[in-house]
Every structure is written in structure tokens, then in C-alpha cells.
Amino acid sequence: MRMRNKYRKPTNLHCHAGTRCSFSVVVWSLVGCLVMLHLYSLVQHKHGRGGEIQVHMSHHPLLRELEEVEEENIQIPPPKGKRSPRAAKRRPRPKRTATIMDEFLDESSQLRHVFFPDWKTAIDPVKDSGNESFYYFPGRIWLDTDGNPIQAHGGGILYDERSMTYYWYGEYKDGLTYHAHKKGAARVSIRTRIDDPDCLSRSDGFWLQPECYTCTASVCCTNCSPAKHEVDIIGVGCYSSKDLWTWKNEGIVLAAEETDKTHDLHKSNVLERPKVIYNEKTGKYVMWMHIDDANYTKASVGVAVSDSPTGPFNYLYRKRPHGFDSRDMTIFKDDDGVAYLIYSTEDNSELHIGPLDQDYLNVTRVMRRILVGQHREAPALFKYQGTYYMITSGCSGWAPNQALAHAAESILGLWETMGNPCIGGNKIFRHTTFFSQSTFVLPLPSLPGSFIFMADRWNPVDLRDSRYVWLPLTVRGAADRPLDYNFGFPLWSRVSIYWHKKWRLPYRWSVKK
Ligand SMILES: *[C@@H]1O[C@H](CO)[C@@H](O)[C@H](O)[C@H]1NC(C)=O
Ligand SMILES: *[C@@H]1O[C@H](CO)[C@@H](O)[C@H](O)[C@H]1NC(C)=O
User: Which residue windows does the record flag with biased composition (Basic residues) (predicted)?
Assistant: First the structure.
């Protein structure tokens, strides 16, 4: 009742008795004006800071260049023979966008080189000098300083302040890809799903999950045959760099177990998305990763620890965090030294987030459910000017899908979804995260508001040949879809990932001010 009265008070403003309540009208108007002014100044303050930075940053022609929208025009070659009998039968004729996806998924496509450029175009920091130096070419083979393709899939980067070196950790996949069915199961099962009219009519995903662990009503997963694609666990690869372009192979820092079949890291199991953070209190480097068995029923996180960024890491244990299944995951270390685990759970239908303990070796009892019912995975979290941001992918196995950006004022939530951050390329590029899946967002402290978006372009038939898609990510300007309004002022800045066929960081970007 008291609540009701409180909320009824303002209705006094609807004054029917004329001048009698003009005094209260004036008072309330003044209060309203003051509140609005206060809010306005707050928002101006926030935007002002952003604006200053933007002005300052836009001095840099290279940065401006990175925020230019670059279109991509892919010509579909004429159909050749009976490349896809299923597709030919399909009626009405497939949309152009579906066709490009078909080409992407078709190993023998004439457009293969567009998505998976061959060795001749490899980025070779040892040989490439002169005008190609320091350029990223998303999707091209990227060689380490030994001349071998970098093996750090589903990875993340640690900046080690002590050695002033970047360390890139990821899945080392330089082995044969297995197929449950001998005849290219990847292609077969993915096509089954695209062609299935039931699946097409659903809005929550298009492709059969190769891992087949989310056969729930809301994810289209009929005809779920065990069409898995995986390589034996080889281990976690580590590469070091000072410039984020020239990477030296530091070897496998957490290796598979060859003989003991009961070990979590036995080569027949699954190890995905390793991430490393440094603990100031213990002086240890702590690695968290997704640990699973071959049919993805273990759904756990694993923890390993090392005295050195280049290992060897000592594997400690696995667990189901907070008692829940955990698949795609990441960890995030906040400015105050508190680290968090974020993982896809409840059959990938939602994410959970919770702080780690002081040693970063365990979760605590605190946990929040976020993005409930949204079926997001591959989380990549970052922070800018006190606001937390996250990029996630949808759940469609190895096939690419649309990224979403999310934002929160507090890391434990409430998290709000802002929409697709991808800019440029073409429509299908933007709807497939440039044919890749998020894995990490790397802050560039010397370029406030600028980040590197790191993603994997998975090659399901040959996983070791999966490519890296690195692109500039910025947090600037107003969000397209500001869900949370504060008296009409959008709370969030826009997260933008810009497509570029080639791009580089500004010269001397690493010099901190
Ligand atoms: C680099 O220089 C070579 C030789 O001058 C030229 O052919 C090539 O187009 C240049 N590449 C770029 C990206 O400017
Ligand atoms: C992790 O913490 C939980 C309580 O939150 C505790 O029960 C468990 O034993 C801890 N595990 C390890 C390995 O320390």
C-alpha cells in the first residue's frame, strides 16, 4: 500500500483545480529539471571523455583507416556439374547468401581460396619485409618464426608485464582430423541440416551440431548422427611476440597424456579454448580450459599452473563449476585483480559467470546466470571505461554464425545484448562473423577504445588448417540498439568489429603514453 501511495504522488501534477496546485507544479518541475540536468552532465561527461579520445585518436590516419567500412564483393562461380545434388533439388532456388555459405562449407569449391587462401599467400614475418610488414591478412596461413603455421586455435593472449612480452596460447591441432563417417561426415551432416525445411524454418540456428550435444527442442538437431570432427589432444601451444605479428613458437606448454586412458588429457579426449592469466599474489601463471571426452559428456573445466609463461604447466584437476556442465569458456582478470570464469552451460542455453578464488585455482560459491535462453558460446570478455563488454557466437558447431555484443555495468550482470558488432564485408560476412568464431578480445592500452578481435575460421575437415581472423574492434559512439535507456540517454557505446582484407596497427602503437 505504501508503495502505491508513493507512486500515486506524482499524479497530483495532473491538477484539475487550476492555480491551487501551481506551487507544487513549479516545485516538481524544478526537481525534474535538476534531475535532467544532472543526468545530462553525467552523460556529457562520459561522452566527453570518449569524444576527447576520439579526436585525439583520429589524428592518427591509420586508426581512421581501420574504421573505414570496407565492402567485399564475392562473385559466385557458375554451378559446376553435380557438386551438390541436394542443393540442385532444392526448390525454390537457394538464396545468394545460402549459396556463399555452401561455397564456404564445400571443400572443393572454386571459392575455397577466398576463405582458405593457399600457402603462396602465407604471412611470413621472417621473409615479409618492406611494405607488407606488420599487416594482418585475416584468413591467410600465418607462419611462426620457424616457418610453420601457427597452432593456437581457440586461443587467448596474455601480456606478461615482467617480460614485456605477449604470449598467445591455443589448441595445438597439428594432427589428422577424424571423422565418425569415412566419407567426409562434416559436409554430409551440415548439408542435411541446411536442406532440412524444418531446420530452415527455425530462427535459432541453421546447422546440425557436429558435436551433437544440444539436441534440445530449441536447437534444431534432428538426424543427429555422431558426425564429430576432432583431432587427438596434442596439447596447448604457446607463442611469444613483442609486436603481435612476429610469433616465436615456445613449444607445447601443456602436453597430452599418451598412455593413461583415465587421464583428462589423454589424447583421445578433448581440450579446448585454453586461457592463461597471471596471479600477482602467488606469482603463478594459471591456465583454464574446457575438458571433455570425445562425445562431450564430461563438460568440465580444467586448471593447470606454471611458474613461467612458457610452461611447463602442471595439470591440477577438472571440475564441473558450481555443479553445472561447462563447455565453451573463458576467464577474465579485472583491474582489481579479481578473475572470473564465464562458461556456456545448461546444454549451451545460457552462460554462467562467477569469480575465482584468490589463487585463481578454483571457482567460489558466487555465480550468476546470464544471457539465459540465448544459446551463446565462445565468450570473449573485455572492459573499457568501467563498462564490461562481451562478444559471443551462436551455437552451430564448426559452422560460422552471427556474433553478438553484450554490455554490463557490473560484471555479474545485468548483461544486455546490443546486437551484431560486425561492420563491412558484405551481408553474409556480417552474419557469419566474417566466417569465423570469437575467441578473445585483446586490449591495446596505448590506443584507448581500440582492441584486437581474435577469432577462429574453423576448417572442420582439416582442423589444423583452421585460420585466424584478427580484426580491429572499437568501442565508440552510440549503440544501434541501446536496450537500457536512462531518461532517453543510451547507456552503452557501440562495439564495432571492422572487416579489412588487410590491415595493421598504427606505427609505434605499443609506445605507452
Ligand atoms: C608491395 O610492393 C610490391 C613491389 O613494389 C608491390 O608489387 C605490391 O603491390 C606492394 N604491396 C602493397 C600491399 O602495397
Ligand atoms: C573448490 O571450492 C569448492 C567450494 O567452493 C570446494 O568444495 C572444493 O573442494 C574446491 N576444490 C579444490 C580443488 O580446491
Answer: 80-95
